[in-house]
Amino acid sequence: MATPVEKNAAVIPLPGALPVPYSLEAEEALLGALLLNNQLLSAVDDFLRPDHFYKPAHAQLYSAIHKLIDRSQVADVVTVTDFLGSADWFKEMQGKTFLDTLVGHGSSVLPARNYGQIVYNHYLARQLVQVGQGLAQAASQPTPEADPKKLIGQTEQQLFSLASLGELDRNMKDLRGPLNSVLEAAHAARKRGTEMVGVASGFTDLDRVLGGLQNSDLIILAARPAMGKTSFALNMALHAAQYHLQERPGGAPVGVFSLEMSAEQLAARLLSSLANVSATDIQRGKFDAPGMQNLAAVASDLSETPIYIDDSPMLTIDALRSRARRLKRLYNVGLLVVDYLQLIRGPNAGKGDNRVQEITEISLALKSIARELNVPVIALSQLSRAVESRDNKRPQLSDLRESGSIEQDADLVMFLYRDDYYLEKEIPKDQLDHFKATVASGDEVAIRTLADKDKQFKRYKDYRGLAELIIGKNRKGATSTIQLVFDGPTTTFRDYSGPNNAGY
After folding, report:
1. Nearest Cα to 28, choosing from 48, 5, 44?
2. What is the tens place of the pLDDT at every residue in 105-116?
């Protein structure tokens, strides 16, 4: 029997004279083979659906065969004829004659999966034709409501969805697949000898609590202005990218969307942190020749780090989604950072929607991006001014509630808090200068004496250079507070390991 030949393009034109891709021969051969040997269904069942067939009668027949086999019944010419006997379409196809013809095209030993793949590929090709025609029609008949950029985003989403279908095109899953994935991840972690199962933040205590930043999670990093949330996010991004270069567990290329700061400003911060040189000194060029050579060497190393920055201001959430897909496709990024959430424009910005509703739509979209690309998304967020009116200014979840559904959509909410920031605002300058000079002197007797006498000094001494990372919500584990060290001149956060690490 001759092997069916795949047709690349076909006979029946769609409107606009575009040919329809299909292969009746592959459809007939597959259905004939299934009627002869029901066990072949397992070769295509994981990816092939009735609507993937071009000919409606073939789609109906595939569905009938599937139903009979799902009921643990034999699906052959006799049983299918009985099952479909009263269907109008089956009568029009002359029933048993139709099935006998298909069986004549099939073989119980045919490579069913290969023919199923031909059917499936033609289905994808038809979808591409449909997307292209829809784009052409919408673009050629613009309306005041039709935004070309939105049209590009919608088309890219359709194409990305098609590209992501892969072999498994079903959303319904039993527990076998997910459980296997969980066990494989646990086995891989055990084999690596590390508890890291996500993208590394590079901070020991945080990675211990979280096991890394988890794929598909929306992570909110929130703080009042000047707490260092951009610096902390950049530190995590740098660690993840460096781990990737070093082939360490938890490493990943990183995409950064900076709606507030330019790429040059972010690069300067990264360089300052990595070179351990004050950002002010870098800006003012306060180096001798060896210092400049060292800075250039660090910059050369940093340039190899897989961090990709998009510093477009006034970015819409649709544009951000489109660019995130592109970063995933081109560089396989494993972590996205968005700085910051309140600067993103919603899908209906300027059309009368209130800001709370707009932020709600943005946070939902960011969670959707995390799931679609299967990467952690860190979104920085401002907090309400209610924090400033409290005696205890440590942030809490209620400080997010004025910003729509951020708390609800997030898998993880972290707050940054630095007590010394508020202390330096509260203490008069001359008194603060005295405190700083006393600590800098290293005179333990003078420090102890002043600490015993002045509660503000003791608080300053105890919290100077420290930061708290407060995990206010953790959908996958416990909440906690993690201490970090913050170096202001280089805008760098580090692990806390005791008083000496904080610089006093």
Report:
1. 5
2. 766 556 788 888
